[in-house]
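Protocol step 4 of 6: record predicted structures for both targets in the notebook before any analysis. Target 1:
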Amino acid sequence: MKFKIVISFLAITLIHGKTFAELELKILDKMRDAIVEAEREPTRENLLAMGKVAFWMSADEFEWTEEYEVEQKRLILQAAAIPGHAKIYTDELELRRGDYLPRPDGTTTALSDHWRYDYLFRNVTVYPSPESVSVLGYLLDDFRNPVPERRRFDSMVVHENAYNAACALSLMGLRDFPMKPLVIPAAMKHAPNLEGMFSEIQDWYAKVKSGEIPFSFVGYAEEYRFNEDGSWEVGKVDPALVEAERVQELAKRKAIRISLAEPERELRRQREKLRTEAAKAASDAKTFPWIPVTVGFLVFTFIGGWWVWRKKHA
């Protein structure tokens, strides 16, 4: 969904000589408006609306301008300073936990399953904040799953929130997080070393929660350490490290875009080749229209001559 939203905006993007592309200005303006509403009145509707804009504002499929990257991070941090920006999702999760839908085979599925996946992965992870880490860390102990076992190969298998939360944490860009980025909860749930892997993540969060170790996010200069009461202190990361991470991230995005764009470029080359060959064939037909006429004349002359010769020798 995020990709489609960004593509739809790109279709109408024009530079018009401005520092930001029109698309970037529109996205940033929407985020500023969402932040104003959430700061003025941090209601459920306003916080969820802000989360949606924050999600697609953070799309990394495209090479935004440097000015956009700077302003985008500033707005994300401003949004992450609003209390409830991440907790709203666990509140929603509890509200929807008891929702069910019957299935043809007699089993049931949680109505909130797709919603859980979307919001744990899509919205909470865009906020590099202590509240997000706290929310996801809380869910690491949430193995409740009211949905009974279902058919094998079911495309909508429900995974416990603990696995969703672990994967979400791995996608947040936390420095020194004990697991590589993992998008699919099933890959973790069915990993051969699941017990050791998950235990390591829980141990990491226990140390973070107690304030034993600090935590920070790749690309951001802030470092956080929790206090016993759940509040946190803010420090700074070495600016040289942040800059090195920024350069590395831009190079990685460029490599991904190139790999994704190559099939499309090859398709365009093939189409252009076909168009060129078709145009050449049409041009040849216009340039040499005498060929079929000449052949027809020679055939007619030969047949006519043969008929005259036969009449004379009949």
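Target 2:
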Amino acid sequence: MWFDESGTLYRDTCRKLFVKCDNNRVKEVQETVKSIGRMLGQKAMWIEFDFSDNAQVIDCES
């Protein structure tokens, strides 16, 4: 849920999507998210960047 600049309350179903990319592609990711938002008819899209290079995949079955 969020409020726009006029105070209108919005309640949307959220879907988290995680994307890993090089830091020099942040602008490209922003533009892609904007494009997806337009296709979905969204007024705004939440995007958050974590510039950590420490992401790992851990094998839980071994």
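Step 5 preliminary note on target 2. The longest strand covers residues 2-3. The chain has a mean pLDDT of 87.
Proceed to step 6 after PI sign-off.
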